[in-house]
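Milestone M4 deliverable, item 7.
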Amino acid sequence: MQEQPVRKSNRLKDHDYSSVGYYFVTVCTKKNEKLFGEIVGATALGRPHINLTSLGVCLDETIQKANNDAIKIDKYAIMPNHIHMIVILTGDRGRSPLQHVIRNIKSFVTKYAGFSLWQKSFHDHIIRNEIEYRGIWQYIDENPSRWIEDEYNQ
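Output delivered:
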């Protein structure tokens, strides 16, 4: 029997993901399938936005419900094939609550869809200061406007 390759963790070695902190998280669909909606032209305010599919609405509601005393999703953007979020861990909730909250969101939306729709893991970046936080907030806020150039829009 051929040995399977060992999957490299994309989590920061020796970082305590149960500690208080701010995280920028990106979660993608399998094969970058555009399942959550479509970016449409300018609104009355002149900004593109996403028209959500029923899966996109389910994802939006699930993200909103994920907020509690220990976990706050401070900012997020649902894109056609991925989501960006700023997740704030406000207190110790045991081992790896960041992974748990992402797993729970993915699991709930998968159950609603009735099929596997996510890539296996997710990307996270530990937000280390106010300048980074503001830059990431702006990046998430402007993401629909940059969809044409987006690396996930193939």
